[in-house]
Automatic annotation (TrEMBL):
InterPro entries linked: P-loop_NTPase (IPR027417), Rad51_C (IPR013632), RecA_ATP-bd (IPR020588), XRCC2 (IPR030547)
Pfam family name, one: Rad51
Matches recorded under PANTHER family: DNA REPAIR PROTEIN XRCC2
Protein name: DNA repair protein XRCC2
Lineage: Eukaryota, Metazoa, Chordata, Craniata, Vertebrata
Name of encoding gene: xrcc2
Residue ranges occupied by any RecA family profile domain in the UniProt entry: 1-160
Organism: Notothenia coriiceps
Superkingdom of origin: Eukaryota
GO CC terms: centrosome; Rad51B-Rad51C-Rad51D-XRCC2 complex; replication fork
GO BP terms: DNA strand invasion; double-strand break repair via homologous recombination
Length: 258
């Protein structure tokens, strides 16, 4: 998933985590999740707040167990790992197979973000492209093996960067579309790109709601859009792509799709 700043990426991650961690009775999948936090951006209080809100919404008079027990059960299915360098990320992936063996209910590996060490690796690799991409290429190889052997789902975020900078010129429709396509262009190593089957690009826009204000004054709210591109190939020479867009807003209970 590629994202621009303040494009709703973090809230989408909480939505995905909640969907996986919640019990079946609350509309969740009730599976274990491994969250590899390389950006150190995971807000556990926000995640707990979303889980609590959705548990309360799904709670019925006949349900058993207290709120604390249900929350504790959800959080017990989450394993958070922090990585501060690409070497640590690579080492963690090496030992992840042990975790998957001991926790067979792990269905999702979430990495936020896979591009966190892109610039440090470029500096460390010097002028050699091979050395710059060496560690991420090895990470991609390990992830490919985990996908093949354990049939898990891997969801990773990626910072969007603009590589073509034309200076402080005025924005036009043509320049906007070209910069958007440049941001959408993959820039990580080819072994990683070969693993990706679905790509999401998050963007933000503001809408005006006239009916929400008693004084009939326009009230602005933020709405986010996620564009999904999925690719599949039946052979090495043929490849098909499909596109889909969805809009959502962010409430106290998390993401609400429109």
């Amino acid at each position: 998933m590629s994202f621009l700043p303040c494009a709703g990426k973090t809230e989408l991650l909480y939505h995905l985590l909640s969907r996986c961690l919640l019990p079946l009775s609350a509309g969740g999948l009730e599976v274990d999740v491994v969250f590899m936090d390389t950006d150190y951006s995971l807000d556990m209080l926000r995640l707990v707040s979303i889980l609590d809100s959705r548990l309360n919404a799904a709670r019925s008079s006949s349900s058993s167990g207290s709120d604390e027990e249900l929350l504790g059960s959800c959080l017990s299915r989450l394993l958070v790992v922090h990585c501060s360098s690409s070497s640590q990320l690579l080492l963690t992936l090496h030992f992840l197979e042990t975790t998957l063996t001991s926790r067979p209910r792990v269905a999702l590996l979430l990495i936020d973000s896979i591009s966190a060490f892109y610039w440090p690796d470029r500096c460390e690799g010097g002028t050699s492209i091979t050395k710059q991409e060496e560690k991420l290429s090895k990470c991609a190889e390990l992830l490919g093996r985990l996908l093949r052997d354990y049939r898990i789902t891997v969801f990773a975020t990626c910072h969007a960067i603009r590589r073509n900078y034309s200076g402080p010129s005025s924005f036009s429709s043509s320049s906007s579309s070209s910069s958007s396509s440049d941001i959408d262009r993959p820039y990580l190593c080819r072994p990683w790109q070969r693993l990706v089957t679905h790509r999401l690009l998050c963007s933000r826009q503001e809408t005006t709601n006239m009916a929400a204000n008693n004084n009939r004054e326009p009230k602005r709210r933020q709405m986010f859009t996620v564009h999904c591109t999925s690719s599949s190939s039946s052979s090495s020479s043929s490849k098909t792509k499909s596109y889909r867009s969805s809009s959502f807003c962010i409430t106290d209970a998390g993401v609400e799709f429109i």
